[in-house]
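Consider this one:
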Amino acid sequence: VISALIRSASSIAMDEAERISAEITKHFAGAKVLSVENVGPAVGSYLRGSALKLILVSLLLMSFYLAYRFEIRYSIGAMAALIHDVTLSVAFCGAAGIELNIPIIAGLLTIFGYSVNDTIVIFDRIRESTQIMTKMSFVEIINRSVTETMSRTILTTLLTLFTVFALFLIGGEGINDFAKVLLFGMIVGTYSTVYIASPVVLGWEWLIKKIRS
C-alpha cells in the first residue's frame, strides 16, 4: 500500500511538472526546462528526524558542559528551561501551521543558544553570591541574583526582540516564519530563565538536603 501511494504521489508530481513545463514553453518560446526535482515525504521525515537528533545531541552536550563549568544542579536547571523553551516553540510551530524546515530548525537552535546564554548569566551571579554572601540562605541568594541581573535580561531581550520584529515586518515571506518562531521563543526563553531554571536549581538543592538528612 505504501509503495502504491508513493508511486501515485510521484505520478501526480510528474504530471504537475509536465503541466508547468508546457505552460512555460507556451508563453516563453525560448525557455527550456533543464531539470525537474521532486521533494517527497521521505525527505520531510528525514529532516524531522535529523532535527530531533540535533536538538537532543545539543541538549546532551550542553548539560555536560554546564555540569563541568558549574555544578550538576545548575545543569539540571538549565536543561529544564531549555526543554521547556524548545517544546513550546515546536508546539507553537504546529499551532501556527509553520513547516518544520531548515530555517525553522536554525531558529530553534538560535532560541536554544539564546536561552542558555541568558540562564548562564544568572547562574554565574548565583555562584558568585554563594561564595561571598555565606550568611544568606540559598533562597535569598537566588532572589537577589535574579533581581540584580533583571535589568540586563530585560534590556538584552528588548533589543533582540526589536531586531527580530523588524525582520518580521520587512523580511518578506522567506524569513517571516523564522522571525515568528524567534519572537515566540525569545519571549518564552526569557520567562523560563527567571521562573523555571532558578526554581529548579532551588528544588534540586532542597531534594539533595532531604536525601542527605
